[in-house]
Known about the structure:
Blueprint lengths: L2 H10 L1 E2 L2 E3 L6 E4 L2 H18 L3 H25 L3 E6 L2 E3 L3 E9 L6 E6 L4 E6 L3 E9 L4 E4 L3 E5 L6 E9 L2 E5 L10 H4 L8 E7 L11 H5 L5 E6 L6 E5 L8 H17 L3 E5 L4 E5 L2 H13 L1
Parallel strand pairs: 1-12, 5-13, 16-17
Antiparallel strand pairs: 2-4, 3-12, 4-6, 6-9, 7-8, 7-11, 10-13, 11-12, 14-15, 17-18
Helix pairs in contact: 2-3, 6-7
Amino acid sequence: MSKPWQKWLAKRFQFEKVKQLSQKDILIFIYQQGYLYLVLILITFIAGINYANNLILGFCFLISAILCISFYVTFKQLHDLSIEISVNEIGQAGDNLDLHIHFRQRQKQSRYLWIKTDQHLEKVSIAELQQKITLSFFMDNRGKFHYPTVQIYAVYPFGLVRAWTYFYLKEYSWVAPKAEFYNAENKQHQHSFEPDMDEFRELRNFQLGDNLHAVSWKQAARGQGLYIKVFEHHNDQPSIDIHYANMPSTEHEEKLSLMMGLIEQCEQLQCSYAIFLPQAELSTGIGTNQLLQAKKLLAQA
């Protein structure tokens, strides 16, 4: 497709969130076997004129009328259909990003449509007043993902005519790096993933029912009797600072992947964390909102 034609299409079929398809949004023309059908019309017309045969001419007019009706019926498959598109703001490399297409129609009508992108070609049937179709895109790389142009078309009922429209999407999503885990023990952060040892407070006499693991065996070995070690309990939850500069790699993308691995470990262990990148920081926190902010920060790094 030539660049001027692409620019014209992009300008005419810009899409923002919701669109109700009107006459100006729909293109329509002969489709594939429709060209053979035109040849059939031409042959029957010439034959009818040549042989002055009204029966052949009548058949020619009949199949011409079918073609004209096909234009109208195919056009109505798209006309007055309301379409809304929504996307996920954050995704992750190695997973799918979903594009949700919401169809709405004022009255129940059976519509037989095709949805086409550079990765999809799916046939859908719309019969309800509201219906949702989801297209999944597999993410290979981290960064900003711009959704491709979506084409929706119909060839119903005979495949002689195609009516179609384009959606040049402005929506995009941020794709976080795929999580990687450093096999060797990272001494700098290891303490953050394990509860700190409680501080020793005192020894008390052994009582029936006490856990034997808490017995001070050093005193027992010296013949001083059985004593239980009592510790001060810490109520503070463990936390970790995830620094870009401390990642054991020289590659930028690998550093981000290792940071993503640490973030996922923190979420699994319910350990609060903060992120420190060369150009941005994320304060200490935990939970769904913290994870989404962390992914977005790494996607933008």
